[in-house]
Amino acid sequence: MIHYDIPVVDPGDWRLSVGGQVSRELSLSLDELRSRPSVTLAVTLECAGNGRAQLSPRPLSQPWLLEAVGTAEWTGTPLRGLLEEAGVEGGATEVLFSALDRGVEGGEEQQFERSLPLTEALREEVLLAYAMNGQPLPPQHGYPLRLVVPGWYGMTSVKWLERINVLDRPFEGYQQARGYRLRQSPDEQGEPVSRMLPRSLMIPPGIPDFATRERTLAPGPVTVLGRAWSGFGSVERVEVSADGGAGWSEARLGPQPSRWAWRSWEWDWEPAEPGAYELCCRATDSAGNGQPLEAPWNLGGYANNEVQRVSVVVAEARSA
Q1: What is the mean pLDDT of residues 206-233?
Q2: Which of 47, 102, 204, 232 has its CA 20 to 30 A from that of 214?
């Protein structure tokens, strides 16, 4: 997720500052952060707007279909250790993360900033990440340092981090008070977007028609593959339907690299006869949350976790 321009950062001059409601302000270079205790964790990050282009009427924003999600191994130092070293003072309630990227949104010039409740910021798995899949962060992923908040939608994991401030009151900046809220109209305050809702996606079987994107699948057995994740608990179940959700079958679950990463699944299917089918998949997490057949609409198009639908025509391939 990139809101504004990717900033150009000189790692030799860059420093991370920690201040606000703390007993000791900190200023750390990238090398100093790398020298601290490190953790590597597989984490799935999903844009809160993933799937918004499938809502009707379509919200006015980045028209994501289902591609705005990915999983990586992030390496960094736990945020909790930094906050403990700084000494969070009594009365502190939130932690604000400020980035280097700047732009205009909602009619106001701003840098991208988001906050977390202090209790969330102190979770042991929240990282200040400086590496991705064993390599330094690429510029588009937040070089030289970013926040990684497992379980929360991607806007929470602030990139190009330059400052952390501990607050004694709720942050009321644009990205917190106006952006990323579930509301039906612009004048509503709405509920804030937070943890990722459960979702399962499949690799569409067959081949697509160039113009219509209708998929054709040859008769015979096929194994449908996919991934599933949730910010509320580990994935405990994935079901697949070949008739648009009228009937469901259990998929086989693969390993889950970490509590915070997506889980692989597969489902064996042999269509009974040629014809049109609609494949759907849905996930259920360990907290009992599942996916709806249709997600409720909201103004920003956030958190659309309705089941994926893939139309497939089973037929013999046509000759060239």
Answers
A1: 92
A2: 47
